[in-house]
Specification:
By secondary structure, the protein is an alpha/beta fold. The chain has two domains: 157 residues, Aspartate Aminotransferase, domain 1, CATH 3.90.1150.10; 239 residues, Type I PLP-dependent aspartate aminotransferase-like (Major domain) (Aspartate Aminotransferase, domain 2, 3-Layer(aba) Sandwich), CATH 3.40.640. 44% of the residues lie in helices and 13% in strands. It contains 14 helices and twelve strands. The chain has a seven-stranded mixed beta sheet with strand order 2-8-7-6-5-3-4, sandwiched between helices. α2 packs parallel to α12. The longest helix is centred in the C-terminal third of the chain and has 23 residues. The chain is globular, with a radius of gyration of 22 Å.
Length: 408
């Protein structure tokens, strides 16, 4: 047996493992760790959705295999959502498929369309599956820098110009995880025009479409005329309805790409448990005030976090969308790096965050803070951080980092 398997060798060390180990150790010691590292919604799924699940599971006819493409009622319900939200008409039979969360959908589409050696363009920093879904499929990933001070379209054009072979596809994600960056419809218009000209597939992750706070709701790339010639969009009910563990997502758009995903899925799964799909249908077709409540919950938490960190002496950008803040680490700590800073927050403030470098090398210098605790816990976290920052000059780790920077 080989010492290490081929696809496993292509995956780098898991950057979050060190912080996770320290977090487990701290909890074993009885410390009250405030975990803002993982984007795991803490609110309950709305009661009417849970009630529909309970009702559906009482019927033994729902206990058998489901359909890997998703039940027809759920696909029709999602077509209705796209029409209401984006004024985009979709064919439930040919342009929509139900996935086991958007993560599974993207990874399986990567398997469906990728040949060994294909080049895929992926923003950096990014949600890990955006890059590693294609790495596991045998592709060569070319990273395109993204961030608040980066000309992404300019970087994209340079990447296409210098890619050999020509790129097969590009992955987009707005509102973005981890950076919380948003874009407008004009941005998508430029993307579609450029990618159609260069025959590049566009895979858009729209998981945070309903978690927005300021300005207009985030658009869909499928609103752009001609986008369906090249684009597929992924989304999920995980954050919108606090249904992360239910594993219901969707891929919609170009019918050839949807058919390819359906072909692969037909070999791999029989779809989500039917009662879960029935309940997901009720979520989409039922009252939507719960979506506004979820949005307001994250907005209130955002404001508590940003204000509390400001009072602690740590100014961070105010995210316009998503359930994350993308925070540049305080200047005094840049010498020790993002991972070391994340460890110090855990060790000295009992606050866990995700080191930005875990999302790609261009994430160095940032941490991702998830809005997954109630306001009281967030206030406690910012008080802990304030106390930690007040004693930062006494940290030997910081002194060593400053000396290293000075020696360069």
């Amino acid at each position: 047996m080989p010492e290490e398997f081929y696809r496993i060798k292509r995956l780098p060390p898991y950057v979050f493992a060190e912080v996770n180990a320290l977090k487990a150790q701290a909890r074993a010691e009885g410390r009250d760790v405030i975990d803002l590292g993982m984007g795991n919604p803490d609110g309950p799924t709305p009661p009417h959705i849970v009630a529909k699940l309970v009702e559906a599971v009482q019927n033994p006819k729902t206990h058998g295999y489901s359909s890997s493409r998703g039940i027809a009622g759920l696909r029709r319900a999602y077509a209705g959502y796209y029409l209401r939200r984006f004024n985009v008409e979709l064919d439930p039979e040919r342009e929509i498929i139900v996935t086991l969360g958007s993560k599974e959908g993207l990874a399986n589409l990567a398997q469906a369309i990728t040949a060994p050696g294909d080049t895929i363009l992926v923003p950096n920093p990014c949600y890990p599956i955006h890059a590693f879904g294609f790495i596991m499929a045998g592709a060569a990933v070319r990273h395109v820098p993204i961030g608040p001070d980066v000309d992404f379209l300019g970087e994209l054009k340079k990447a296409v110009q210098h890619s050999i072979p020509a790129p097969l596809a590009i992955v987009l994600n707005f509102p973005a995880n981890p950076t919380a960056q948003t874009v407008d419809l004009d941005f998508y218009g430029e993307i579609v025009e450029f990618c159609r000209h260069h025959n590049i597939i566009v895979l858009s992750d729209l998981a945070y479409a309903e978690i927005y706070f300021d300005g207009k709701p985030p658009p869909s790339i499928l609103e752009v005329p001609g986008a369906r010639d090249i684009a597929v969009e992924f989304s999920s009910l995980s954050k919108t309805y606090s249904m992360a563990g239910w594993r219901i997502g969707f891929a919609v758009g170009n019918e050839r790409l949807i058919a390819a995903l359906g072909r692969v899925k037909s070999y791999l799964d029989y779809g989500a448990f039917t009662p879960i799909q029935v309940a997901a249908t009720a979520a989409l077709n039922g009252p939507q005030d719960c979506v506004a409540e979820v949005r307001e919950r994250y907005r209130a938490r955002r404001d508590v976090l940003v204000d509390g960190l400001r009072q602690a002496g740590w100014e961070i950008p105010v995210p316009a969308a998503s359930m994350f803040a993308w925070a540049p680490i305080p200047p005094e700590f840049r010498g020790i790096g993002t991972l070391a800073f994340s460890k110090l927050l855990l060790e000295r403030a009992n606050v866990a965050v995700a080191p930005g470098v875990g999302f790609g090398e261009y994430g160095e210098g940032f941490v991702r803070i998830a809005l997954v605790e109630n306001p009281q816990r967030l206030r406690q976290a910012t008080r802990n951080i304030k106390a930690f920052l007040a004693g930062r000059n006494d940290l030997p780790e910081l002194r060593r980092g400053a000396q290293a920077v000075a020696a360069k």
